[in-house]
Amino acid sequence: MAKGDKINFSTPSGFPEFLPSEKRLELHLLDIIRRVFESYGFTPIETPAVERLEVLQAKGNQGDNIIYGIDPILPPNRQAERDKSSETGSESRALKFDQTVPLAAYIARHLNELTFPFARYQTDVVFRGERAKDGRFRQFRQCDIDVVARRELSLLYDAQMPAIITEIFEAINIGDFLIRINNRKVLTGFFKSMGIAENQIKSCIGIVDTLEKIGEIKVKQDLEKEGILEEQAQKIIEFIKINGSVDEVLDKLKHLAQNLPETEQLSLGITELETVIAGVRNLGVAENRFCIDLSIARGLDYYTGTVYETTLLGHEALGSICSGGRYEELVGVFLGEKMPGVGISIGLTRLISRLLKAGILNTLAATPAQVMVVNMQEDLMPTYLKVSQRLRQAGINAITNFDKRPLGKQFQLADKQGIQFCVIIGSEEAAAQKSSLKDLKTGEQVEVLLENLPEEVKKRLT
Questions:
Q1: pTM score
Q2: DSSP letter string over 12-73?
Q3: What local confidence, expressed as pLDDT, does residue 359 receive?
Q4: Which of 24, 39, 206, 413 stands the most exposed, by the fewest C-beta atoms within 10 Å?
């Protein structure tokens, strides 16, 4: 770079940067999510941001994910070294685009150190080289849970997922939401009974999954482009539009299965769906929180059974705010054995961006401090430090203003940061072991003995 050239220090497109108030909101939501995950016994892990490329592509480049490759940049005098050691094949590395494929590799690497079923959660950052736009990022934090077993995994783990989703979003208090549940075997079984070829089913499921984005007419057209007959396409549309209460949809599916040929997989999917719904109810999830939606397919190829998508009612344009499902083959691809799993994922960075823009969530105060001890006189700084420390020891977040400035300016500084209380101690107060406590929200100011200050602040905190 030539001397005097101006450096572009703006953030790269699609890579978010948070102000303190935004980061505090993220940490607050992470605390809620972690608490719920751990209440169900999920344990935390972390996998590298960088994985071998062949690991990330073990099940194909899933969905529309564009993988960021890693290529070291060496100084000019080491260029020959770079050319000589250029990474290819198994040595090529890339940034992880989700948590599920790296989880499979993690289990393969630590198979003999883990206890199964293995229930883990992760809140790592992932990277996708997609086009950056509003609410879509190239770097974002995902909050995932998965349960993986060897050979068999109870469907009651599938039933736990809607209960966990419900607890998280009720705790966040984002309004009414609906967890839409389906089973890929139901879709696959129906397509088979319609006489659709095995090699067409995957693409058909992918098209069905786009229903909300492109609409019924376009779905039908796309199905026909895949070689599906017009009559078959119409029946598929009618099938995925089956609605009603959970019990009504199950009854309709059972009746349909009795009148179609080759329904073994369809019937299995219905039975699994029924088992999951029973478990969801036994876990106490309210009936208005979930439904069966036969249009939910999940675009990723590795899902084989139960699938979920969560919609914020009244804000459906936000898309799914939590999704996931069951997979049978993903983990076993590294070990050559059957290792079924089920999991869900919350794209937290995307979710926060959408909810803030929609006015559903608000950022937190820029600082976690609840009290500012103002600086009235430099010679009283030892007293201010002792009072601040006493507040912290009582569990109250406090900052001491070390800079001497007019009292009104100190109040303004505290208010700008969202600090509710200011502690004022001058010479007379210090001599009498008293303070004035000012509530910046109400403007009220009261006299408090220093020994009673922590208790008084706690009583008044809102």
A1: 0.90
A2: PTT-----HHHHHHHHHHHHHHHHHHHHTT-EE----SEEEHHHHTTT-S-TT--PPEE---
A3: 92
A4: 39
